[in-house]
Amino acid sequence: MIEPLSEAERIDALDGLPDWDHDDGRDAITRRFVFADFSEAFGFMTRVALLAEKADHHPEWSNVWNRVDVTLTTHDAGGLSVRDVAMAQAIDAVVG
Amino acid sequence: MIEPLSEAERIDALDGLPDWDHDDGRDAITRRFVFADFSEAFGFMTRVALLAEKADHHPEWSNVWNRVDVTLTTHDAGGLSVRDVAMAQAIDAVVG
C-alpha cells in the first residue's frame, strides 16, 4: 500500500512540476504534449510506455494525431503519491 | 477530399464490423480492447500505430493499463469514410 501525499507534500510537488495541472476532483496531475506529427507523438508515447513499465506505474492517456494528454494518479493511494511525482519528472525529462 | 459513406454504405459497413459501435453523434465507430496487462495493450497500440502511419489515417484513442479505447472517423469527410472501414478491418486483424 502506498500513501497519498500530504497537503504540504502535494503543494511542494506541484511547485516542482510547473507544466502539470492539478485535477482537484480526482487528485491527479495532467499535462498536454503537442508534437509535430503522429510519428513524434507516438515516439514519445513509446518512451513513456517503457518508463511506465519499468516503474510499474502507468499513465492514463489519450492521443489524437500530434497530441498526447497524460493523467497521473495512484489508484492504490486514492490520489497523488510520490510515484506520480517521479513519473511526471521522468516524462518531463523525455521532452527535455 | 474524401467522401463520407452514404447511408446505405454505412449500414453495410457496420454490418461487416460487428465488434464496433457506431457513435451517431459524431458519425464515428468505437471499439474497446481489453488485454492481459499494459505490455500487451501497448504492444497492440504499437502495431496499430504502424498501420495508422502507413495508411496516413490515425485513430483517436485512449489507454488505461490493459484497456485501449479506439475511435475512428474521418475529419476531412465529416464522418465515416471507407478509410475508417479499412482501418477497423486492419485493427480487427491485429487481434485476430
From TrEMBL, chains A, B:
One of its GO terms (molecular function) is 4-alpha-hydroxytetrahydrobiopterin dehydratase activity. Belongs to the pterin-4-alpha-carbinolamine dehydratase family. It catalyses: (4aS,6R)-4a-hydroxy-L-erythro-5,6,7,8-tetrahydrobiopterin = (6R)-L-erythro-6,7-dihydrobiopterin + H2O. InterPro entries: PCD_sf, Pterin_deHydtase. The keyword Lyase applies. Keywords: Lyase. Its EC number is 4.2.1.96. GO terms for biological process: tetrahydrobiopterin biosynthetic process. This is Putative pterin-4-alpha-carbinolamine dehydratase. The keyword Cytoplasm does not apply. It is an enzyme of class 4 (lyase).
